[in-house]
Each structure stands twice: as C-alpha cells, then as structure tokens.
Fold this protein.
Amino acid sequence: MFAAPAPVEQTTHARLIVSTHRSALLRVTLRYRPDDPLAVRMLFPAEFALETGDPALLPDSPDPAAGRLPDAAPPVPEIEWVFARQLLSAGLELPSGEGDVHIRPALGGRTMVELRSPDGVALLQFDRIELRRFLWSTLLAVPEGQELHHLDCDAALAQLLA
C-alpha cells in the first residue's frame, strides 16, 4: 500500500485590476488536494469579495513591494474559487476557459485570471512563474493522466447524496 500524496499549498500575490489606474495587491492561497485531483483552488481574503464593495485600492506601482499587505495581518475569512487543474495548465499557454473562470497569458511574464459571478467580474494579474511553480507541484503530487487513480468515486458519490 502506498502513502497518499500530500496536499499542495502555495501563497502568492496577485494584483486585482480595478481600472487602468487603480488596483489592489492581495494575498492569494493556491491549493491542490490529491483527493480532488482534477481541481485547483484559489482562496482570496473576504474583504476583496465583489459584493462587499470596493476593496482598499492602491495606485499601480512598478515596485512589486509597494502596497504589500502586512505579513502579520489578522486572519480573515476567505473566498474560494474551484476550477479544473487542466484550465490552469492551458491558460498559462493560450487564452482558455468558459463560464465563470478564464485564464490567459499576458505581457511581461504575467497571467490574467478573470473570475465571473452574478455580483460582477474580477480581473487578477499573477506572476506566471508563481502559477507554473504551483502547477508543477500539483503534477508531482498527482501526474497528469493519473487523476482517476486518486479519485475516490464512492466517497464523492456519498458526499453528493448526503
């Protein structure tokens, strides 16, 4: 019997684009659970939820440390978006996505993630290297094409019927 791969978690920063001159830097947690091998998760501080109104917006700056959130900030509830790991992989190379999540490469080594909800649209800019690093870690945990070997169909069905 083999040990189940450990979950993957990485914290990074993204820039929430509000307009051509306004954005906010926020901490994003990327998660991957081998027991849900087809999905990745992005968790955002609840203060940036679309229905709560404008977040504390910061001016754009070429200095990536400008406007950085304090490391000792108190924990806040998080908003979680779940989407296909394959979408993240495809979106790093070509514009990809249908429905609520769209991912596309951008200039300057960036990747844009567009999240759509009934409350509005959020456009986030990530460092492509950070997303690639996370994706690579998930592929080490569960290689592409091996996802179904890690999926517990009975548990998933029981959860749906509960």
The longest strand covers residues 22-32. Confidence is low (pLDDT under 50) at residues 52-67. The first helix runs from residue 85 to 91. Helices lie at 85-91, 128-141, 147-150, 153-161.
